[in-house]
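S1.2 Input.
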Amino acid sequence: MLGKLLSRISKAEVKLITKLAYPIVLGHLGIVLMGVADTVMVGKLGKVALAGVNQANNIFFLFSGLTFGVLFAVSTLVSIKVGEKRPDLGFITYRAGLLVSVILFVFQYLILWLLIENFHWLKQSPEIEAIAPEFLKIIAWSVLPMLIFTNCRQFTDGLGHTKISMVLNIGGLGLNVLLNAIMIYGWWGFPALGANGAAWATLITRILMAVAALWYVRYSKLMKQYLPVKMPDFKAIWRETFEIWKIGTPIALQTFAEWACFAISGIMIGWYGSVQLAAHAVALNAASLTYMVASGLSMAGSIRVGNAYGEQSLSSIRRIANMTFFMIVVFEIFNALIFIVFNRQIAGLYGVESDVMPYILPLFFLAAFFQISDGLQAAAMSVLRGIKDVVWASIISIIAYWVVSLPLSYLFGEILQKGVYGVWLGFSAGLFLAAILGVYRFYYQWKRIKF
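S1.3 Output.
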């Protein structure tokens, strides 16, 4: 009898997580497929253009983890308010997130501008230096609409309405592909802008996505039930920003440690020339598709854990985390098999030049190797966020990625001269350590939760 009851509870939890997760996953895939579309469409211009655009995006996302990570606190705060049966108070968090977004934009834009003006600091090849800074000058302006869209998405996701961002992301994907074709290749009489056309397409798409998200939150019928009768004054919004900074800053350090590790790894690979950098761009782009699915499941788990935390139910918190971990492990084992069996077919979809292909195929085997650890570390950090244990999540990430991963990448790649393969071995080790420590930390902290 008890076994049947537990089985029913588990199935019910899988359904709830899946219901929340699949729109997040599809939305995330929409974001990543924008990168895939850029990679494929810019790749037709040649490996030099592909390497230059990839390096510009590396630098762009180097600091995005720091700024976007702060806004991840919005969904945590809103989901806890939902668990406390106070969802209407989430609108104050949303408004505070908009204010925080403007502050974060100024911070990130100034850093990007400094790197654009001093791109020689990164010691890239001349052909990459000719492309990447100009590309960055354009997409740097997309930071603000991206942050605004992220805040809207975190708000609606925290309320449990995850389909909204899915629709907007998929719509953005279609628009981005169309604008890429028009601006990169010069369709319908438009001047062909080459690699910079992809940057303009991305900027325009992100602006329109932000505008659509702002309109939906404020004027849609679904969101009206969460609007307060009296709009919050500036004092209430300002007070809530401190809650966002309090929870969001450690999350930002955690996401920055991870995102920056991959970005700096890409910069290292740029030392070895455009061929290895192009191979890295394709393999990592493909691996990011599977990561986005794991990330979506993790975020759904985080929302459910946040609800249970608001309800003050220890048993529910553990059950939800267990199912999140289990679902991700099963999914990542499947992904690993796909990368091993169909590596050549996947690589062929990108249409890369023949001299790049020999570097790509071994990278798919390395991608298969780190699938489970990559998914588990994402899940662990998300469920820790759901119980507000964000400080240790950031400490774990800093140790795994900055103390272990980056030094090992430099050792294997540069000192032992293994090139792109050595760098990948380094960040694979960091992902494994982050997964082990993150899962351990969750169960350790769960035992010590006191309401």
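S1.4 Remarks. Residues 1-6 have pLDDT under 50 and may be disordered.
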